[in-house]
Design a protein that fits this description.
Layout lengths: L4 H6 L4 H29 L3 H22 L11 H7 L5 H4 L2 H20 L14 H33 L1
Helix pairs in contact: 2-3, 2-7, 3-6, 3-7, 4-6, 6-7
């Protein structure tokens, strides 16, 4: 049985909770760095790179939170099913974002490979497939996920520290 986030924090957690929290913190730290790289790529008008990096940042942000609540997420890039199936483990404010994150996960994952490899059938490199609007949308998705997941992690850590004090 996997306890939801608040129940796990109430009982003080265990060694696996500590590991999950450390992993979540690391994933979010990496997601933040990658997001910075995505913004830089967009400024340089490398829209395909901004999309690829936004997808990676988004994926790490979401997997961090899944890890935090003890969900074994799929070892694939599109994680909307895991988010939907685990929604009740999150606070209500975060649950209200899950549908938007599902949409973002699908949109970003569908563009992940073309943003890296281009369209070989059509003979178009990745740099010719995406535009400013596409990279702005990708950055918006990644930024919203990163901010929300950071907030959730901070809340979880804060509650954990309060119980142990």
């Amino acid at each position: 049985m996997v306890l939801d986030l608040e129940a796990r924090l109430e009982v003080g957690g265990d060694h696996q909770d500590l590991i999950n929290r450390r992993m979540a913190e690391n994933y979010l730290s990496d997601a933040k760095s990658i997001f910075t790289e995505a913004k830089a790529a967009r400024r340089r008008k490398l829209h395909h790179r901004a999309i690829r990096l936004s997808q990676e940042s988004f994926e790490l942000s979401v997997k961090a939170i899944l890890r935090l609540v003890g969900v074994e997420y799929p070892k694939e890039h599109e994680v909307s099913d895991a988010m939907r199936d685990s929604a009740t483990k999150f606070p209500h404010w975060f649950q209200s974002l899950v549908a938007d994150f599902e949409e973002a996960s699908v949109w970003l994952s569908e563009r992940r490979a073309p943003a890296m490899y281009g369209d070989e059938v059509a003979g178009k490199p990745a740099s010719q497939l995406f535009n400013n609007r596409d990279s702005r949308k990708a950055l918006t998705f990644a930024g919203e996920a990163l901010r929300s997941c950071e907030r959730l992690l901070k809340e979880a850590i804060g509650k954990s520290h309060l119980r142990r004090a």
